[in-house]
């Protein structure tokens, strides 16, 4: 039975515009919202929690300069993208100790609220964040996936590149920020066999057979609501994120029922309520073929044309609930 939570807790950084979109949708429905960033622990965030004395749940409260949130009154949690934990300690060992204690103490509490339902629970997000797991689950659910090699073996990489007509390289994660704060990116790129050298052995690499796609699809699933956008790039780019986003063309696309059912099963497998799926669309004899590329379990969606409707879908599941 669904129930309206007394407080929706939003766990994220201050500059998270995607979270702001959901918060506005919640406030339109007169929901009580408390926002916290674990990195503010100290003057910006205090907490206390107790267990025992006949209770088998954590009782207490979170306190920010503008909110007090009793733990028992938190009925739903939108766990987005909190800032990295930090400490003002000058000694490096003390700094790392304080950060680790906050991660296990405050972080552990935020993962184990007594009445909270999560979108998504951070543990589920972490499990679903490995591309190797994503491809395996997608394939087992009957979705088409690209032929893929994960390796640090140069001979294996060259053999794979020679076997397939066209091959791409895709990084597992984004590039960490530089010490000066600058952010870099490695876009999906074509690979020729003669470009591969012994640097392959230095770390893990993912190579895939290139799909001869006509366009891409971004499918955002929130509970049982599905929002799909066709993305077309005029230059037929391998990775549409690389170029000028103003050149991208967006359009609605209907998701085949067989794909939709697989997406529900995919989310259920990982214990997710929400996910951003990327597909390559390829023209075929019997219509478009959908090839699963990846799923970001904590993806961005506020840039999509139907972001307002997606925000309302988040408000639906946070306030009314839909859990597999």
Please state the CA-atom Rg, rounded to the nearest Å: 22 Å
- What is the chains' assembly state? single chain
pLDDT < 50 stretches: none
Mean pLDDT: 90
What percent strand?
25-35%
- SSE order: EHEEEEEHEHHEHEEEEEEHEEH
Main sheet strand line-up: 14-13-12-15-16
Backbone structural class: alpha+beta
Sheet with most strands: 5 strands, antiparallel
Instruction: Tally the beta strands.
Output: 16
Identify the overall geometry: globular
| Helical stretch tally | 7
Descriptive report:
This protein is α+β, with helices and mostly antiparallel strands. It contains 7 helices and 16 strands. The chain has helices at 17-28, 92-110, 122-127, 131-140, 154-163, 257-270, 307-319; strands at 7-11, 33-36, 46-52, 55-63, 68-70, 74-79, 117-119, 148-151, 167-170, 189-191, 205-209, 215-222, 225-232, 249-252, 274-284, 287-296. The protein has a 5-stranded antiparallel beta sheet. Helix 1 crosses helix 7 (307-319). The longest helix has 19 residues, at 92-110. The chain is globular. It starts with 6 loop residues before the first strand and ends in a 5-residue tail after the last helix.
Descriptors:
alpha+beta, four-stranded parallel beta sheet, about 325 residues, 7 helices, five-stranded antiparallel beta sheet, 16 strands
């Amino acid at each position: 039975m669904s129930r309206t939570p007394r407080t929706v807790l939003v766990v994220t950084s201050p500059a998270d515009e995607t979270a702001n979109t959901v918060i506005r949708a919640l406030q339109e429905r007169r929901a009580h919202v408390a926002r916290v960033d674990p990195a503010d622990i100290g003057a910006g965030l205090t907490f206390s929690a107790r267990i025992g004395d006949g209770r088998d749940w954590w009782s207490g409260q979170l306190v920010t300069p503008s909110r007090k949130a009793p733990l028992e009154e938190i009925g739903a949690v939108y766990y987005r993208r909190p800032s990295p934990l930090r400490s003002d300690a000058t000694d490096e060992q003390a700094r790392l100790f304080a950060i680790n204690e906050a991660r296990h103490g405050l972080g552990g509490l935020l993962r184990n609220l007594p009445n909270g339902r999560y979108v998504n629970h951070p543990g589920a997000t972490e499990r679903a964040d490995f591309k190797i797991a994503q491809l395996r689950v997608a394939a087992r659910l009957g979705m088409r996936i690209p032929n893929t090699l994960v390796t640090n073996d140069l001979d294996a990489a060259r053999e794979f590149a020679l076997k397939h007509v066209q091959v791409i390289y895709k990084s597992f994660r984004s590039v960490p920020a530089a010490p000066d704060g600058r952010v870099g990116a490695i876009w999906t790129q074509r690979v020729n066999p003669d470009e591969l050298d012994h640097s392959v052995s230095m770390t893990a690499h993912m190579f895939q057979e290139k799909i001869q796609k006509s366009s891409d699809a971004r499918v955002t699933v929130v509970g049982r609501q599905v929002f799909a956008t066709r993305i077309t790039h005029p230059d037929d780019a391998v990775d549409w994120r690389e170029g000028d986003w103003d050149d991208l063309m967006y359009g609605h696309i209907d998701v085949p029922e067989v794909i939709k059912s697989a997406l529900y099963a995919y989310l259920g497998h990982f214990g997710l309520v929400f996910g951003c799926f990327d597909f390559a669309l390829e023209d075929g004899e019997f219509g478009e073929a959908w090839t699963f590329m990846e799923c970001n379990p904590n993806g961005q969606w506020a840039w999509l044309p139907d972001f307002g409707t997606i925000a309302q879908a988040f408000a639906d599941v946070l306030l009314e609930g839909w859990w597999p």
